C-alpha cells in the first residue's frame, strides 16, 4: 500500500500501470499516475467543509467570494460525475465516519484517480454503511476504476472481490476469488496449509481488488 502511494520509493520489483513500467518514487508521482490511497486515518481537515476538502490543493484561483462559490460548484460537479451525494456545506468534523470516507473517495476521484487503494474501509462502519460502500465500490469498478481492497474480514472479500491476493511471511498467494470452505479461509489469514505451500495460483482474466 505504501509503495503504491509513493511513500516507500526504495523497493524491489516492478510496478506496471496499463502494462507500462513505472517508478513510484513520491506521493505526487503516484497521484500523477492516477493512484489514490485512502488510509484508515483520513487526510481531511475537520474545520473545512466537504466541498473544500474535496478540492483541497486544487482550488480555483479566484477572489475569496468567487472562490468559495466556485469550489462548491466544482465539488458538486465532481460528485455528480461519480454519482455521489454529500452535504457540501457541512464541516467534515460534523459528519460521521461513513460520510468522511465518501468525502475521501470523492476527493480521490476529483483528481481523476484510476486506481483506488482502500485500507480496511469498513473497520468503523455499520452494516448499513458497509452495504452502501459496497454498492459504490461496485459502481466505480463498473466504470473502470481499479479497486485494491484491503481487509481482514474474509466474508467481505468473498462478497466483493474478483481476485484475491494474500501476502504474509514474505510469501504471496493470489488467484480468482471463489467461495472457500471455512478451513481454507483460515489458511488465508493465519498462514495455514495454503500459505505454507507458497505457490502462485493462475491469474484470472478479470481485474479487481484484494
Distance between termini? 11 Å
Structural class: alpha/beta
Order of helices and strands: EEHEHHHEHEHEEHH
Shape: globular
* Proportion of strand residues: 15-25%
* Main sheet makeup: 3 strands, parallel
Q: Helicity range of the residues?
A: 25-40%
List segments where confidence is low: pLDDT < 50 over at least 5 consecutive residues. Answer: 189-210
E-strand count: 7
| Annotation field: number of helices | 8
Widest beta sheet: strand line-up: 3-4-5
Mean pLDDT: 78
> What Rg do the Cα atoms give?
19 Å
Can you put this structure into words, describing what you see?
The longest helix is centred in the middle third of the chain and has 19 residues, at 64-82. A hairpin with a 2-residue loop joins strand 6 (163-168) and strand 7 (171-176). With 210 residues, the protein is α/β, with parallel strands linked by helices. It has helices at residues 27-32, 50-54, 64-82, 97-110, 127-142, 154-160, 182-190, 193-197; strands at residues 15-17, 20-22, 35-38, 115-119, 146-150, 163-168, 171-176.
Features:
two-stranded antiparallel sheet; 7 strands; alpha/beta; single chain; 8 helices; 3-stranded parallel β-sheet
Amino acid at each position: 500500500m505504501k509503495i503504491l502511494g509513493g511513500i516507500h520509493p526504495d523497493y524491489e520489483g516492478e510496478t506496471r500501470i496499463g502494462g507500462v513500467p513505472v517508478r513510484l518514487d513520491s506521493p505526487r508521482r503516484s497521484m500523477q499516475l492516477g493512484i489514490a490511497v485512502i488510509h484508515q486515518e483520513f487526510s481531511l481537515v475537520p474545520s473545512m467543509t466537504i466541498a473544500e476538502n474535496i478540492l483541497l490543493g486544487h482550488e480555483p484561483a479566484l477572489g475569496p467570494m468567487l472562490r468559495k462559490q466556485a469550489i462548491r460548484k466544482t465539488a458538486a460537479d465532481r460528485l455528480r460525475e461519480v454519482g455521489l451525494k454529500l452535504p457540501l456545506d457541512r464541516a467534515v468534523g460534523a459528519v460521521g465516519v461513513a460520510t468522511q470516507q465518501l468525502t475521501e473517495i470523492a476527493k480521490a476521484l476529483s483528481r481523476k484517480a484510476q486506481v483506488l487503494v482502500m485500507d480496511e474501509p469498513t473497520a468503523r462502519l455499520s452494516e448499513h454503511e458497509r452495504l452502501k460502500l459496497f454498492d459504490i465500490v461496485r459502481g466505480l469498478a463498473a466504470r473502470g476504476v481499479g479497486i485494491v481492497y484491503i481487509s481482514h474480514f474474509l466474508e467481505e472479500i468473498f462478497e466483493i472481490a474478483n481476485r484475491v491476493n494474500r501476502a504474509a511471511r514474505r510469501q504471496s498467494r493470489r488467484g480468482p476469488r471463489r467461495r472457500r470452505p471455512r478451513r481454507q479461509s483460515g489458511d488465508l489469514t493465519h498462514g495455514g496449509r495454503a500459505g505454507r505451500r507458497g505457490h502462485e495460483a493462475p491469474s484470472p482474466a478479470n481485474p479487481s481488488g484484494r
